[in-house]
Amino acid sequence: MKAADIDEFFSRLSAADPEPRTELNYVNPYTLLVAVVLSAQATDVGVNKATKRLFETVRTPQAMLALGEEGLKAHIRTIGLFNAKARNVIALSELLVRDHDGEVPADRAALEALPGVGRKTANVVLNVAFGQPTIAVDTHIFRVGNRTGLARGKTPEEVERKLMRYVPARWRLHAHHWLILHGRYVCKARKPDCPACIVCDLCAFKGKTVAA
After folding, report:
1. What is the pLDDT along the chain (212 residues), one digit of tens a residue?
2. What's the rounded Cα separation, in Å, for the pair 97 and 117?
3. Within 10 A of 200 (CB to CB), how many other CB atoms are there?
4. Cα dist. 7→120, 157, 192 in Å?
5. How far is Cα 169 from Cα 175, in angstroms, rounded to an integer?
6. Cα angle 18-137-124, degrees, rounded to a multiple of 5
7. What distance in Å separates the CA atoms of residue 41 and residue 113, rounded to the nearest whole number?
8. Which residues are catalytic?
9. Where is the domain boundary, 73, 106, 128?
10. What are φ and ψ of residue 92, in 5° steps?
11. Which residue in 172, 159, 105, 106 sits closest to 133, CA to CA?
């Protein structure tokens, strides 16, 4: 996709949704971190349902440690891989208390050193909690980047590198959410809704769907 088309692509997404937000519910950087860790291989809707009551009382790593692993499991049993995720949340909470005075660090290396936190999770936290212009490539962004020609790559890391290189600086802060929402609701995996797509004419996808 040409530079002018990329700029127009995000200009249109911005006009349609000037202030995009994550669909994960959270109350502070710590609960955001927990929610993102829980969201791996799970839907935001499912995570929000599981954390609704949890985040009413557990909003710090200290409170999570007081709840304990079994107590956490009772809240998140409906989420896939909940046993491993509970272990990771308790372990990362211990490290936050021990090494960071109970605060979530605004630093990629420190975040990725936490159990259960990979590059994608760190990117989400840095972007949403700390306003850094990162792009977390999930399945939606990976698909949109490759399908549209915006940023083609064989791995999420390759797509991320290209997006960070090609997306104009003025769009980078919100690019993550625009692309996720576009992939979730319009440029869907099985049948993209091309007739409803506001960037359809800029897209390089050859198998565009037509209106019924």
Report:
1. 899 999 999 999 999 999 999 999 999 999 999 999 999 888 999 999 999 999 999 999 999 999 999 999 999 999 989 999 999 999 999 999 999 999 999 999 999 999 999 999 999 999 999 999 999 999 999 999 999 999 999 999 999 999 999 999 999 999 999 999 999 999 999 999 999 999 999 999 998 988 76
2. 16
3. 17
4. 24, 22, 22
5. 10
6. 65
7. 21
8. 120, 138
9. 128
10. -70, -30
11. 172
Residue 177 corresponds to which amino acid? H
Total domains, the chain: 2
Q: Name the phi and psi angles at 76, rounded to 5.
A: -115, 20
In 3D space, the residue among 191, 192, 195, 189 whose CA is nearest the CA of residue 210 turns out to be 195
Its domain, for residue 147, covers: 3-20+135-202
In the numeric block, which tokens belong to residue 28? 């502070």
Give the chain's radius of gyration (CA, Å).
Answer: 18
Gap between the Cα atoms of 151 and 144, Å rounded: 8
Tracing tokens 């839907």 back to the chain, one arrives at: 43
CA separation (Å) from 203 to 67, 104, 118?
48, 38, 30
DSSP class of residue 78?
Answer: T
Instruction: For residue 154, give every residue at least 6 positions away whose Cβ sits within 8 Å of its Cβ, in sequence order, or none.
Output: none
Same domain? 48 vs 98: yes
Nearest Cα to 7, choosing from 143, 128, 166?
Answer: 166
Name the amino acid, one letter, at 30.
Y
From 128, 143, 170, the end of a domain falls on: 128
Query: What sign results for the dihedral spanned by CA atoms 147, 151, 157, 163?
Result: negative
